[in-house]
Design goal:
Number of helices of chain B: 0
Largest sheet of chain B: 5 strands, mixed
Helix content of chain A: under 10%
Largest interface: A-B, 30 and 23 residues
Number of helices of chain A: 0
Helix content of chain B: under 10%
Number of strands of chain A: 11
Number of strands of chain B: 9
Order of helices and strands of chain B: EEEEEEEEE
Oligomer: heterodimer
Shape of chain B: globular
Protein backbone atom coordinates (compact mmCIF):
# COMPACT_ATOMS: atom_id res chain seq x y z
CA UNK A 1 0.00 0.00 0.00
CA UNK A 2 1.59 3.27 -1.18
CA UNK A 3 -0.17 5.43 1.37
CA UNK A 4 -0.92 9.05 0.48
CA UNK A 5 1.22 10.38 -2.35
CA UNK A 6 1.68 13.95 -3.54
CA UNK A 7 3.31 15.52 -6.57
CA UNK A 8 5.45 17.37 -7.22
CA UNK A 9 7.76 17.30 -4.20
CA UNK A 10 9.05 20.81 -4.74
CA UNK A 11 7.93 23.66 -6.94
CA UNK A 12 9.15 27.18 -7.62
CA UNK A 13 6.75 29.69 -9.15
CA UNK A 14 6.74 33.40 -9.83
CA UNK A 15 4.31 35.84 -8.25
CA UNK A 16 1.10 36.04 -10.30
CA UNK A 17 1.41 32.56 -11.79
CA UNK A 18 -0.93 29.64 -11.23
CA UNK A 19 -0.05 26.25 -9.73
CA UNK A 20 -1.66 22.80 -9.54
CA UNK A 21 -0.75 20.28 -6.86
CA UNK A 22 -1.84 16.65 -6.95
CA UNK A 23 -2.73 14.06 -4.37
CA UNK A 24 -3.52 10.35 -4.50
CA UNK A 25 -5.23 9.04 -1.38
CA UNK A 26 -4.48 5.88 0.53
CA UNK A 27 -6.30 2.84 -0.82
CA UNK A 28 -9.77 2.59 0.70
CA UNK A 29 -10.02 6.28 1.59
CA UNK A 30 -12.71 8.40 -0.04
CA UNK A 31 -12.11 11.82 1.51
CA UNK A 32 -9.28 14.23 0.76
CA UNK A 33 -8.35 17.33 2.74
CA UNK A 34 -5.76 19.98 1.94
CA UNK A 35 -3.71 21.95 4.44
CA UNK A 36 -1.22 24.79 4.17
CA UNK A 37 1.70 24.90 6.57
CA UNK A 38 3.79 28.04 6.74
CA UNK A 39 7.26 27.84 8.23
CA UNK A 40 7.15 27.41 12.00
CA UNK A 41 3.36 27.08 12.11
CA UNK A 42 0.94 24.20 12.42
CA UNK A 43 -1.00 23.11 9.33
CA UNK A 44 -4.04 25.24 8.42
CA UNK A 45 -7.11 23.64 6.84
CA UNK A 46 -7.89 24.77 3.29
CA UNK A 47 -10.78 22.52 2.25
CA UNK A 48 -12.07 18.96 2.17
CA UNK A 49 -13.49 16.95 -0.72
CA UNK A 50 -15.88 14.04 -0.50
CA UNK A 51 -17.81 12.44 -3.37
CA UNK A 52 -16.26 14.98 -5.75
CA UNK A 53 -17.79 17.89 -3.84
CA UNK A 54 -16.19 20.47 -1.57
CA UNK A 55 -17.63 19.55 1.81
CA UNK A 56 -15.86 22.05 4.04
CA UNK A 57 -13.72 25.11 3.53
CA UNK A 58 -11.35 26.97 5.80
CA UNK A 59 -10.57 30.66 5.79
CA UNK A 60 -8.81 30.82 2.44
CA UNK A 61 -9.62 33.11 -0.52
CA UNK A 62 -11.23 31.96 -3.74
CA UNK A 63 -7.80 31.89 -5.37
CA UNK A 64 -7.58 28.47 -3.76
CA UNK A 65 -9.74 25.90 -5.52
CA UNK A 66 -9.80 22.17 -5.78
CA UNK A 67 -11.19 19.15 -7.45
CA UNK A 68 -11.75 15.52 -6.64
CA UNK A 69 -11.88 12.88 -9.34
CA UNK A 70 -13.99 9.70 -9.44
CA UNK A 71 -10.95 7.67 -8.32
CA UNK A 72 -10.81 9.92 -5.20
CA UNK A 73 -7.57 11.62 -6.22
CA UNK A 74 -7.53 15.38 -5.86
CA UNK A 75 -5.97 18.57 -7.13
CA UNK A 76 -5.34 21.88 -5.41
CA UNK A 77 -5.15 24.93 -7.65
CA UNK A 78 -3.86 28.31 -6.58
CA UNK A 79 -4.26 31.30 -8.90
CA UNK A 80 -2.50 34.67 -8.87
CA UNK A 81 0.23 33.44 -6.56
CA UNK A 82 1.46 35.76 -3.81
CA UNK A 83 4.75 35.63 -1.96
CA UNK A 84 2.75 34.65 1.14
CA UNK A 85 1.56 31.48 -0.57
CA UNK A 86 5.02 30.00 -0.08
CA UNK A 87 4.44 27.02 2.21
CA UNK A 88 4.30 23.26 2.57
CA UNK A 89 1.01 22.00 1.14
CA UNK A 90 -0.24 18.85 2.73
CA UNK A 91 -2.85 16.43 1.48
CA UNK A 92 -4.62 14.13 3.91
CA UNK A 93 -6.84 11.23 3.00
CA UNK A 94 -9.32 9.73 5.39
CA UNK A 95 -11.94 7.13 5.98
CA UNK A 96 -14.51 7.20 8.76
CA UNK A 97 -12.00 7.18 11.63
CA UNK A 98 -8.48 7.37 10.29
CA UNK A 99 -6.66 10.18 8.52
CA UNK A 100 -3.20 9.98 7.01
CA UNK A 101 -1.08 12.75 5.57
CA UNK A 102 1.10 12.77 2.52
CA UNK A 103 4.70 13.99 2.44
CA UNK A 104 3.69 17.42 1.17
CA UNK A 105 4.61 19.70 -1.70
CA UNK A 106 6.98 22.56 -0.92
CA UNK A 107 5.89 25.61 -2.91
CA UNK A 108 8.19 28.59 -3.16
CA UNK A 109 6.86 31.80 -4.74
CA UNK A 110 9.49 34.29 -5.88
CA UNK B 1 -8.46 27.95 16.86
CA UNK B 2 -6.96 24.74 18.18
CA UNK B 3 -9.15 22.94 20.68
CA UNK B 4 -6.14 21.58 22.57
CA UNK B 5 -3.40 22.92 24.82
CA UNK B 6 0.05 21.37 24.85
CA UNK B 7 3.35 22.41 26.44
CA UNK B 8 5.55 24.05 23.80
CA UNK B 9 8.58 21.89 24.45
CA UNK B 10 9.83 18.88 26.41
CA UNK B 11 13.06 16.94 26.76
CA UNK B 12 13.41 13.21 27.35
CA UNK B 13 16.46 11.03 27.90
CA UNK B 14 17.04 8.34 25.31
CA UNK B 15 15.63 4.99 26.43
CA UNK B 16 13.24 6.55 28.93
CA UNK B 17 9.50 6.91 28.53
CA UNK B 18 8.29 10.19 27.06
CA UNK B 19 4.95 11.37 28.44
CA UNK B 20 3.34 14.13 26.40
CA UNK B 21 0.27 15.77 27.96
CA UNK B 22 -2.65 17.40 26.18
CA UNK B 23 -5.64 19.31 27.56
CA UNK B 24 -8.89 19.27 25.61
CA UNK B 25 -11.49 20.45 28.10
CA UNK B 26 -14.07 21.37 25.42
CA UNK B 27 -14.07 17.99 23.69
CA UNK B 28 -17.53 16.85 22.62
CA UNK B 29 -18.96 13.37 22.96
CA UNK B 30 -18.31 12.17 19.43
CA UNK B 31 -14.84 13.66 18.99
CA UNK B 32 -11.79 11.46 18.95
CA UNK B 33 -8.34 12.32 20.28
CA UNK B 34 -5.67 12.01 17.57
CA UNK B 35 -1.91 12.24 17.89
CA UNK B 36 0.44 13.00 15.03
CA UNK B 37 4.08 13.88 14.89
CA UNK B 38 6.03 15.88 12.36
CA UNK B 39 9.70 15.64 11.70
CA UNK B 40 11.16 18.72 10.07
CA UNK B 41 9.56 19.51 6.69
CA UNK B 42 7.85 16.12 6.39
CA UNK B 43 4.13 15.40 6.43
CA UNK B 44 2.54 14.68 9.82
CA UNK B 45 2.82 11.01 10.76
CA UNK B 46 -0.17 9.32 12.37
CA UNK B 47 0.62 7.84 15.77
CA UNK B 48 -2.58 6.78 17.51
CA UNK B 49 -6.15 7.79 18.22
CA UNK B 50 -8.85 6.99 20.75
CA UNK B 51 -12.35 7.87 21.87
CA UNK B 52 -12.75 6.85 25.51
CA UNK B 53 -10.59 3.86 26.25
CA UNK B 54 -6.85 3.73 26.51
CA UNK B 55 -5.20 2.57 23.32
CA UNK B 56 -1.87 0.96 22.51
CA UNK B 57 -0.16 0.18 19.26
CA UNK B 58 3.38 -0.57 18.14
CA UNK B 59 4.38 3.08 18.37
CA UNK B 60 2.77 4.42 21.51
CA UNK B 61 0.09 4.30 24.18
CA UNK B 62 -2.71 6.80 24.61
CA UNK B 63 -4.19 7.38 28.04
CA UNK B 64 -7.47 9.35 28.10
CA UNK B 65 -8.87 10.53 31.42
CA UNK B 66 -12.31 9.34 32.42
CA UNK B 67 -13.84 12.80 31.89
CA UNK B 68 -12.05 12.95 28.49
CA UNK B 69 -10.76 16.44 29.21
CA UNK B 70 -7.12 15.47 28.92
CA UNK B 71 -4.88 12.77 27.54
CA UNK B 72 -1.27 11.63 27.58
CA UNK B 73 0.74 10.13 24.77
CA UNK B 74 3.39 7.72 26.00
CA UNK B 75 6.40 6.71 23.94
CA UNK B 76 7.67 3.82 26.07
CA UNK B 77 11.35 3.86 25.10
CA UNK B 78 12.25 7.11 23.38
CA UNK B 79 14.95 7.08 20.72
CA UNK B 80 16.70 9.94 18.94
CA UNK B 81 14.40 9.34 15.96
CA UNK B 82 11.43 10.31 18.14
CA UNK B 83 12.63 13.92 18.19
CA UNK B 84 9.78 15.77 16.47
CA UNK B 85 6.84 18.12 16.97
CA UNK B 86 3.89 16.22 18.43
CA UNK B 87 0.36 17.41 17.74
CA UNK B 88 -2.71 16.48 19.79
CA UNK B 89 -5.96 17.03 17.88
CA UNK B 90 -9.57 16.46 18.85
CA UNK B 91 -12.19 15.98 16.19
CA UNK B 92 -13.31 13.48 13.62
CA UNK B 93 -12.21 12.83 10.09
CA UNK B 94 -15.38 14.24 8.55
CA UNK B 95 -14.40 17.65 9.87
CA UNK B 96 -11.33 19.83 9.66
CA UNK B 97 -8.49 19.17 12.05
CA UNK B 98 -7.32 22.16 14.06
CA UNK B 99 -3.58 22.02 14.65
CA UNK B 100 -2.12 24.06 17.44
CA UNK B 101 1.59 24.66 17.83
CA UNK B 102 2.22 21.19 19.27
CA UNK B 103 4.97 20.03 21.62
CA UNK B 104 8.53 20.00 20.38
CA UNK B 105 10.05 16.86 21.90
CA UNK B 106 13.82 16.58 22.03
CA UNK B 107 15.27 13.19 22.90
CA UNK B 108 18.67 13.63 24.52
CA UNK B 109 21.42 11.00 24.15
Amino acid sequence: DAGVTQSPTHLIKTRGQQVTLRCSPKSGHDTVSWYQQALGQGPQFIFQYYEEEERQRGNFPDRFSGHQFPNYSSELNVNALLLGDSALYLCASSSIREQYFGPGTRLTVT
Amino acid sequence: DAKTTQPPSMDCAEGRAANLPCNHSTISGNEYVYWYRQIHSQGPQYIIHGLKNNETNEMASLIITEDRKSSTLILPHATLRDTAVYYCIVGYTGNQFYFGTGTSLTVIP
